[in-house]
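Before a colleague's protein record goes any further, I have to sign it off. Alongside the sequence sits a line of tokens, each denoting a local backbone shape. I want your independent view on whether this chain really folds as the tokens say. Where you disagree with what is written, explain briefly why. This is what I was given:
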Amino acid sequence: MRKLAYWGLGLLLATGLSLAAPAKDAAKTFVGSIGDSMCGAKHMMPGESDKDCTLECVKGGAKYILIDPTGKIYQLSEQKQPEQFAGSKVKVTGTLKGDTILVGSIEAAK
């Protein structure tokens, strides 16, 4: 009888702990601007807009990135969606893995 009580208590604790644990891979929303991996936070093409510079750098082999308001740079798993937002402020929803956002969606920020 005592073994059954301990087993039941163990099962109850295990269930309670699994419900209380936060989801490791929960999606978050990140706000910033779409740039490129070559220029980073500062666009280097004189006379070009942020959008034009970003698009040219990506044509040259750079990758789209997200630059948050503090200057932190995140790599983006998705490289097609960001094109329409090049040089613009956006909200990216996704899961952070290291310094890469596994992109779920991108939309213009207000």
User: Anything to note?
Assistant: Residues 14 and 20 are 10 Å apart (CA to CA). The chain has a mean pLDDT of 86. Residues 24-108 form a domain with the OB fold (Dihydrolipoamide Acetyltransferase, E2P) fold (CATH 2.40.50). Helices lie at 2-20, 50-59.
